[in-house]
Task: structure prediction
Amino acid sequence: MGHACDRQIELAEQAASYSLCQNPHSTRDGGESRLQIAIGREVRACRKRHGMTLAELADAASVWLGMMSKIENGHISPSLATLQALARALAVPLSSLLRQFEQERSAVFVKAGTGVEVGRRGTRAGHQYRLLGYVGSNAGGISVEPYLITLTKDTDTFPLFQHAGMELLYMLEGEVGYRHGASSYRLTPGDSLFFDADAPHGPDELIKLPISFLSIISYGVGGGED
Result:
């Protein structure tokens, strides 16, 4: 009990230190605000793809550094002349800086029991993977894969998964001992485990079968599967 309490305090302190300031209940303003936010995100993404610093892009486009920062953060709407200068400095068509505003945002709806069964490294150990949807790399270069994983009497323990990115587990059914690095966690329905997936991880004790949990993996462009 004391260990769990200490962990909750540690988690709260980490959240505070990381300044988790995104408001999930916020709404966006009108079209002009959405446009400048979209332009800012695309300029930042393109700049990073080119390996340029904010100061280097500001200098190349002859834009004041403070204004450059406001453009990337979506705080101001750049003039057409400024957009042209940025496009030239980034060696891209001006229209590409408007891409995020114009493109449609997708959503994936999966009816109960209809996710796609896929084979991954753990399939050989009897792990059943059902992919619940997939949205490819976004402007930030992040891909996310959500899985429903089921372990049965035919499943072997396998605490040696290792891949790029971060992973979140959320227990739905059963009970499992799940190892991450040198630590092992006893997970029951409602428990979650969030970790750096580059360390060896996986179930090392099947306590109560059947076991099912959500596994949500996020990784940057070039990250791989188990």
Notes: The radius of gyration is 22 Å.
